[in-house]
Structures are given as C-alpha cells and as structure tokens.
Amino acid sequence: MEPLTLGSRTPEEHEERQAAVDRGVPFLVFRDGDGRQRIFNLEASTDSVTVGRRYEADISLPWDPEASRLHAELSYRAGEWTICDDGWSQNGTWVNGLRLAGRRRLADGDLVKIGRTIMGFQQPGVGGPGPTMVEAELSSTPRFSEQQQRILRALCRPLFADGDGFNPNSDLEVAEETGVDVDIVTQELDLLARLFGLEDMPRPERRAEVALLAVRSGLVGADEGGGTQA
C-alpha cells in the first residue's frame, strides 16, 4: 500500500499534479479554504517565497485563522529550498511533526504545517551525491504504516456519512472497525496528533482536529472514508 500523501481527489487534480511533476520544478501542494487543490511552483529564479495570511504574501492563506499575517519564508540557497520561521508566527511552523526553530532544508515528501494548512513539498527528479547522515536524520519524511492508514480512515468515516457527520469515531469505535486493540488505537492517534502539531489540545478536540486536517489536506478522501475497511 502506498504511503498516505496529500492525495488527489479527482482525475483533474491527478493530471494537474502529474503536470507539475513532469515540469521537473519543485512545488508545494495544498488545499485552500474550499478544499481545492493548489500547486505553487518554486522556481530557481525566485530568491524567496513568503507564506502567511495577508494577501501580499506570495502564498496567501486568508482562509486560515491560525496562520499569522507573515508566517514563514522559503528561500533558495545553493540549489536547495529551505524554510524559515524566525519567531514571526504565533502558532509556529511544523515540518514532519517537529516545530521549526530557525531554518531547515526541505526534502522531497516533507509535510509542512502552517496554521491549519498542510503543504506537501515535492522535488521531482531528485539527484545528486546523496544526503549525509545528519541530513538524512533532519529531513526524514513521515511514512504512515498500513495500520495507521486504516485507523485514520476509520476515524474519519463519519465525516463522509449522510447527515451531520461532523464528529469522528471514538477510539473504541475505531478499534472495533479495524480489529486493532483500543490501546494501540489510542497510541497511534496520539502519534498522529503529534505529527500534526496538536499534542497540546485536549484529547477529544485533538481527535476531531486530526480528522478534519486529514480530510482537508486530502490524506483521506471520500472514496477512502466512505466504505467499510476490512
């Protein structure tokens, strides 16, 4: 099974994503406030890219109340894209579940969380001499196990059901659906919450936010959340 990613929901989105890959230029993919896929190409001729809630930002997130007006900056240095948050943001910038302190280099597949918006960094055709040991440790990309994928889909299932469908399944309901011990379900969902930078929230709110972020970002789509998983 493929690792969970910011998945395309329609053939049109898949074609748009593939076209971006074929261009061979690094890009960010994310969803706007209406759930539409957005792709921002990171051209080497661009020295820096600002991200924030204000409209003047290069990547503007006006729909995200948890993003700061000037939240983070991406810079192109020596053939590598880096991201920096020098204390500009109130809620922090998270890369692969770790709060960013200063600047770090981005690697293909990194997940960047700004406010409630999750961005996937894609770097088609990555080549070169390969990473050093330190680089490999710093830029490790989270990969979701099959068990975590099943748990996340089961958690989100009510969001795709007929009716209100706002509250996600409880840990016990997820355990019953997936056949995974409830204590393991709780541990896995707590781990996912940390990955999304939500560990400080109360557990019930944390579960709901994990589910909403997974759906908003495309980690779980209607085709995955609507049916019963074995």
UniProtKB/TrEMBL annotation:
Pfam families according to UniProt: FHA
Per its UniProt entry, which superkingdom is the organism in? Bacteria
Looking up InterPro entries in the UniProt record yields: FHA_dom (IPR000253), SMAD_FHA_dom_sf (IPR008984)
Residues annotated as domain FHA: 49-100
CDD domains per the UniProt record, alphabetical: FHA (cd00060)
Q: Cross-referenced Gene3D superfamilies, in alphabetical order?
A: 2.60.200.20
Q: Which PROSITE patterns does this one have? A: FHA_DOMAIN
Mind listing the UniProt keywords for this protein, alphabetically? Phosphoprotein
Protein name from the UniProt record: FHA domain-containing protein
Task: Provide the taxonomic classification.
Answer: Bacteria, Bacillati, Actinomycetota, Thermoleophilia, Solirubrobacterales
